[in-house]
Amino acid sequence: MKRSILLLSAIAAMTIANAQTFTAGKFNYKVVDTENKYVEITSGDDYDGATSADFVAEVTNEGQTYKVVGVGASAFEWVEFGGDVALPEGFQYIGKLAFNNACGGKFTVPASLTNFVTNAFIQNQFQKFEVSGDNPNFATVSTTQEGCEYVFLTDKTKKRVLVAPGVVYKDASEENYVETVVIPESITEIGACAFNGNPTVTQVTFHNGITYYGDNAFENTWLTSANIPNGNAYFGIALFQGSPDLETVTLGAGIKELTRTMFNQCNSLESITLPEGITKLGKQSLCKTALTSIDLPSTCELIDSSALQWITDLKSIDLKNVKRINAQAMGNMTFL
Questions:
Q1: For the segment 321-333, what is each residue's pLDDT rounded down to a tens digit?
Q2: Which residue in 160, 107, 105, 98 sits closest to 129, CA to CA?
Q3: What pLDDT does 198 receive?
Q4: Cβ neighbours of residue 272 under 8 Å, at least 6 residues apart?
Q5: Residue 192 burial (CB count, 10 A)
Q6: Is the dihedral angle over the CA atoms 163, 164, 167, 170 positive or is it negative?
Q7: Which neighbouring-strand residues pair with 271?
Q8: pLDDT tens digits for range 178-215
């Protein structure tokens, strides 16, 4: 009897779950609020070629009309859109990894959008961002990079970059694209994941007025060097993690520590300038780099767990001022 009740409960749960998802037009939808009849777009197998026309504010299923209020997690991962993407008014949010690796023309944010997860656009290949002028939360900053218009998606103050475009072509052939970006003086903060996975930019020029670098801001990029003049800025974790072409790094005076996984798995990193004042190398901060020598400042007192692990080419490092070395901080080094 107990087994029968459990089986019936499972069947009922499956029926309810199935009733909460449906397909209308090009996309799949999931009910997220039964009382208000709200749905979000979910992932699907045949989204390539979609355009703005496929995004609608309302959908109907079995005689019931629903309002589309968001884009769910991973909904458009790896999708190659057939042109521009303009979300209709009524869309309120964009979920995690929603447009990860998505490729398209211009992306337009509606006035109704209130938030998106910071990793919603990592590795995106959109060419431009646009925001409805009535949106109270987001804006854009238009710059000129290598003679081309280059538009950042920003917060409303236009001081924090939220997303950089993945690819900006120099001409109609779509064979040449902008590779060098100069952060404008008006921008003072680089938000979390802002350039994460950017497939085209190889050089970014930072100015001294930048005071904030968010988590994962340049993770998995193709930058070849990084010169950060203002060491007094806030530095998030995994800032340049997994950037395979990063070779040289210069950090300005004022920085107190290398944050966790800051340069982890930057396999080509051969040179880093660490200024006086640094007191700590955070966990995995230089793990799996190509450094052959490290000139620690006299102020460095702590090397945290795995900070220098798997630096197999390291030949010299002066530890005389270091007071504490945590577990596996320097594990798997051939010279030890």
A1: 999 999 899 887 7
A2: 107
A3: 98
A4: 248, 249, 250, 251, 263, 286, 289, 291, 294
A5: 21
A6: positive
A7: 248
A8: 999 999 999 999 999 999 999 999 999 999 999 999 99
> Measured between alpha carbons, how far is residue 206 from residues 226, 229, 284 in Å?
8, 7, 24
Q: Which residues fall within 8 angstroms of residue 283, CB to CB, at 6 or more apart? A: 260, 261, 304, 305, 306, 307
Q: Name the average pLDDT for the chain.
A: 93
Rg (CA), the chain: 24
pLDDT at 332: 75
- Are 134 and 114 within 8 A, CB to CB? no
Could you tell me the CA-to-CA distances from 50 to 4, 54, 109, 278 in Å, in that order? 45, 6, 17, 50
Closest among 123, 119, 71 to 92, alpha carbons compared = 71
Contact 270, 293 (CB under 8 A): no
Cα angle at 119 between 117 and 120, to 5 degrees?
65
Contacts 24+ apart (CB under 8 A), 52-59: 52/83, 52/84, 52/85, 52/86, 52/108, 54/25, 54/26, 54/27, 55/85, 55/86, 55/87, 55/88, 55/91, 56/25, 56/88, 57/88, 57/89, 57/90, 57/91, 58/90, 59/24, 59/25, 59/29
- Is the pTM value of this prediction over 0.85? yes
Largest alpha-carbon pair distance within the chain?
Answer: 75
